[in-house]
Amino acid sequence: MFDFIYIFGLLFSFICGAAFAKRKIFDAEKSRLNIGERLVSKRLNAYLMDEQIAGIVINNVTLPIDGSTTQIDHILICTRGVFVVETKHYSGWIYGDPKQKKWMQVLFKKRSYFQNPIHQNYKHIKAIQALFDFVPEEHIKSLVVFTGDGEFKTPLPKDVVLLDGIKDWMNQHENHIFTLNRIQFCYGRLEYLRMPDNDETEQLHLKNLSKQHTV
Questions:
Q1: Boundaries of every domain in the chain
Q2: Domain NERD spans what residues (predicted)?
Q3: What distance in Å separates the CA atoms of residue 36 and residue 87, rounded to the nearest whole number?
């Protein structure tokens, strides 16, 4: 217990130095999170505290990639490695196959389709692998979390969980993969290379998404 408090205290001190300096940025970041993203961010932070794991959750990260941008809902950097998290907040019935390009939502007998979030998060994973080129690829993992009252009518694919499944999924991964120094280094590089979390970045990302959909 003492070791955890000491390690977490060191990490907390390091992070707070940057956090207080960027308080306005973090406040803006929080305001841009939707309901599902706020729930997942809160649950990830609670996981670190409850399981006594040193780490940090970074939300709403926009990175430049291949002349465009990619936006990541959450990145968890902790002693278990790096976790790239995509959040989906849905109601109704959900049908999803890991190999299909589109998944389906049925709400009040109306069908609508959305991009396979596993495929969507793959682009995020590649961006983080390029950013953290010093980290073995197997230590950078993808997770998709569904919030809301949606009900899966197909089996949950691998690495896709409901909100309450985050803890069990995380605990499947080996601990002590990263040292405190490695966590600090990853966090520092991410904060240095991510795009500013402001309205201009958001508008640029939306513009890039529009271009992709019209190609």
A1: 2-214
A2: 32-151
A3: 7
